[in-house]
Design a protein that fits this description.
Helix content: 25-40%
Number of strands: 22
Distance between the termini: 39 Å
Strand order of the largest sheet: 13-12-17-16-14-15
Largest sheet: 6 strands, antiparallel
CATH architecture of the domain at 232-342: Alpha-Beta Complex
Number of helices: 14
């Protein structure tokens, strides 16, 4: 019987394990339990053109919105499959126990989300990620009981195991509890290791998603793409040691952004974008907040005080809890002070529509992979992309059969990041970039020990330098326009030195 290795136990990893276990034995490896993964933090919802609101929605329109939101550098084949399969995925999630909020007719309720003119986002209050993880984890436990899935909690990825034919044959991991180093050999590996949070320090994401796995894979020859595309979520708050998300659902339900101007509330999004206002794509809203606040000099507020109490306490329950617990603020009565924060990495491991990487036998899904989102991810597409990616990767991984003997390499365990890294990246890869600051950051990174994370950070900055235009989440003050010649994916490959090219 085939054996599939899955690294990461969030939505992508759980889905991959469930689907692969139908025809194979699965090792599911993660540093912590699924219930503590970043997927649990997702509040807003999951997109699918269910068309239950009388708006003539369709999967074609979902496709068009996703491509437009990504500034047309998404993988169109992958996006077509993603949006086409979305209704089936949401119905499957409901069937396995996800407690989606229902409308008065008993249908899965749908809300508006940024970058979309239709009500297309299914949700479970403001705890959608938590509800879906609960349902998937329950399905995974059934497979554990049946003996087709074996969980390995408390293990962290160290490196790929490659054969003489440069094919993937497994992974090496280290126990966080004992320090034991162990090899997991399989017919294919699916990486579902999340984003690159440790590059920036204080993000809204989990500290478990430190980006080391992607960095190590890069040094082992795995191709990465669109590393310059980093999403700043428009509405985050400062909490002890990190930033916390105020879900886009707050704006989807009618929340408004304002700053004080001449003693009055100025609802700048309504003035600048009268049709979509606060529901413009995230990159547009974040830039607008930055501009309206004079680069952060003025306080920006998200106002939901005009919404009824039930909407806030039921549909936006997580927003209410976060504000009362971390800000000592009642959002029913007071506006919420917000500012954009690093939220999601559109770039990552380059995969095709089947979630294959450039190394045979290696797949990637979820935030660590790159194909669906282009230059900007639409809210509600991350959960969809993670689940769809895990599903597709599992189906294709079952077809693999590695050849050649495994090469024995020296094992180097991940170390602590340089304390200067987060500051360098935050300054140079902010909402707005320019050549001078990017080059300065690159020089500073040259002074740091060349670990996989530092090599990855250099690749991010070099990708930003080479994309001499502004597109989506990548905004250059020295190249403020989008250029047709850059309507392409940036790619980075490492063979002792970093090479960046476009295709």
């Amino acid at each position: 019987m085939k054996r599939i290795i899955v690294v990461g136990a969030g939505l992508a990893g759980l889905t991959a394990a469930i689907k692969a276990s139908d025809k194979a034995k699965v090792d599911l490896i993660s540093p912590d339990y699924s219930e503590r993964s970043q997927s649990v933090m997702a509040m807003g919802g999951i997109n699918a053109a269910l068309n239950t609101k009388g708006q003539n929605d369709s999967t074609d329109q979902h496709f068009a919105d996703t491509m437009h939101g990504g500034c047309e550098i998404n993988d169109s084949e992958a996006v077509s499959r993603l949006t086409g399969d979305a209704p089936e995925i949401v119905r499957w999630l409901s069937e396995i126990g996800t407690s989606f909020t229902r409308d008065s007719d008993g249908n899965i309720d749908l809300r508006y989300f940024g970058g979309q003119k239709k009500q297309r986002t299914a949700y479970a209050g403001a705890r959608t990620g938590k509800q879906i993880v609960t349902a998937l984890a329950s399905q995974c436990r059934k497979r554990e009981f049946e003996g087709t899935v074996e969980r390995h909690v408390g293990w962290r990825f160290v490196s790929l195991m490659l054969t003489q034919n440069h094919e993937c044959a497994g992974v090496v991991c280290v126990s966080e509890n004992t320090g034991e180093v162990k090899s997991f050999v399989g017919d294919a590996v699916i990486m579902a290791s999340g984003g690159l949070n440790s590059l920036f320090g204080k993000t809204v994401g989990s500290t478990q998603n430190d980006g080391y796995a992607t960095a190590k894979l890069f040094t082992q020859g795995v191709q990465l793409s669109n590393l310059e595309m980093i999403q700043y979520h428009p509405t985050t708050i400062q909490a002890p040691g990190k930033r916390m998300l105020i879900t886009e659902a707050a704006r989807g339900e009618g929340g408004k952004l304002y700053v004080m101007r001449d003693g009055e509330k100025w609802y700048f999004m309504k003035e600048w974008y009268p049709e979509m206002a606060e529901l413009m794509p995230r990159d547009v809203v974040s830039r607008s907040i930055y501009k309206a606040s004079d680069g952060g000099e003025k306080e920006v507020y998200l106002d939901i005080t005009h919404l009824d109490d039930e909407t806030i306490k039921v549909k936006l329950d997580e927003v209410y809890d976060v504000c009362t617990q971390y800000l000592n603020l009642n959002p029913i009565e007071e506006p919420i002070p917000i500012f954009p924060g690093v939220h999601y990495f559109m770039g990552g491991i380059k995969t095709d529509a089947d979630h294959r990487t450039n190394i045979k036998g290696l797949y990637a899904a979820g935030e660590c992979s790159c194909q669906y989102h282009g230059a900007n991810r639409l809210g509600g597409n991350s959960l969809l992309g993670a689940i769809h990616g895990g599903w597709v990767a599992a189906e294709n991984a079952l077809l693999e059969n590695p050849t050649g003997e495994i090469i024995q390499e020296d094992i180097v365990l991940p170390g602590k990041n340089d304390d200067r890294l987060a500051d360098v990246m935050s300054r140079s890869m902010s909402i707005y970039r320019d050549e001078e600051n990017l080059n300065k950051a690159l020089d500073e990174l040259m002074d740091m020990e060349e670990t996989p994370i530092i090599i990855l950070a250099k690749a991010c900055i070099m990708s930003a330098l080479e994309r001499k235009e502004s597109r989506g989440a990548h905004q250059r003050t020295d190249y403020p326009q989008s250029e047709v010649e850059f309507e392409k994916t940036s790619n980075a490959i490492y063979d002792g030195e970093i090479n960046v090219f476009f295709e």
